[in-house]
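Dear colleagues,

As part of the handover before I leave the project, I'm documenting each prediction I ran so the next person doesn't have to rerun anything. This entry is a single chain, and its sequence is reproduced below.
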Amino acid sequence: MRYRSIRALENYKAELRAKGEKLTIAELIPIAPLNESNGMSSFRMHAGMIETRQEDYSRPMRLVGSNHALVSWQQPVPDGPWSANTWTNLIVWLETNAPVLVDIHADLAKPVLFDLIDYSVGYDFALPPNWRHMQSGMTALSTATLIELHENHPAQAWTNLLSLTRLVQRWQVEPIHVMHLTHRGMCVRAIHTTWEALQYPGWTDVQWAELQACWEALDLCAGVDAEQAMNRSMVIGCYAKTRQNSSYIISLFTQTGYGGMLNYIQENITRDPGEALHMAVLVPLWAFWFSFDDERSFMHRTQENLEIIRSIQKQSRWVNQEPCPLTNWNRRTFILQEVFDSGEGQRLRMATTETKRRMLVAAIALKRYQMHHGNYPEQLSALVPEFVSSVPMDFMDGQPLRYRLQKDGSYLLYSVAADGKDNGGKSEMSGNVSAGFKFGADGTDWVWPQPATPAECEAYNNPQTVKRGKEMINSNVFFIAPAASIGIEYFRQRWQGQNNYTTRLP
């Protein structure tokens, strides 16, 4: 039986290679650009010099209703009434870091940001060295933009906003899962910050046209297939290492964020000697035998997701297709497949960020139209060809983004979301008031927020709202604890052979 599993795995790998798939890390390492065009080295150096504390940063575009958000730079307190942050503190932070930000602006004037990583170590590396610097630079530029808007310094605010946009546009993201997640988070932060800038009246059409061109040039679907292929090649290496040393699996649980599951296993071993014997037998047996079916199952799911991703990239729209269920596999013998992401969640994260990007491009074009004509257009088609080359399309169904001019002169802009159903712009706020631009549950559309009304701003600063916000901030169980406990419960049921687990995050 073991040799049959080995042959089946090798045959499947040969089948993938015959299709042109690359299964080794060496085949997938990206080609470095010319040094003179690469600003990453100096950017990393300067971003590492930013002096900051957690309270030195401000978050843009807080939702206060289904379709409305606070304009943060207009608020008396930058991070909400329950925050200890003040504009005075932020101004001091900006003055301290002003020389470093000047250097960062120069770094981001170069056409590409590319970092060299030792991919050969596979999953045995810590986070890539530029991870922290990208996050720090992004947050600093976003916060600096909000401060300058609050202080009514449009030229300085624009410099920071343009650099922030260049940071997400010019970064050649490494084909590593955590770096793609980081880049999407940075894009969302940049989109939120640009939404804030759209509420400021002091920009010119030339400026907006430049920023719009940067966002139009950004393809958030590009490279996702390469990331998935690199992830697969690294996981193949992990399977090989566990067969050489079955204790290697424990380090994988730790460094991939499954420490809670590892603790659960260790607690059961301590309480139940029979469980200890079970572990002592099962893990080596899995490494010797079941790991081959485990690996082939993972590769099947990854390949199916790769093909769906490539279909999305080719069509430039969402493909609502799930991989076939693995009904013929013994799920209980799978261990590593539960640790590694085979790409199913990656696709929806890609789609939501790309949808936000397209709505931002449409919002900028609408702003430019309004600046020229004094009002917003009746239809998106009026933007063509002066402000966009074609009608902005909804990534989720390949049709034009839904748009409706409101009676008060504002507009409703939205996507039909993952279910592909037009619910007329119905949406619901996802998360708490400080969560930012998050998409709601099934049965709702993804709506581009409008500025909060005076009544909503007043309600946001209401003492009861402040009390509730402080309680959420002081509570460690608002999100983290439920997520951790559900993750451990999921593994417990899977470990015991239960395949009907249905618990979801709150």
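The radius of gyration is 25 Å. Confidence is low (pLDDT under 50) at residues 257-262, 326-333, 430-436, 470-506.

All the best with the project,
I.
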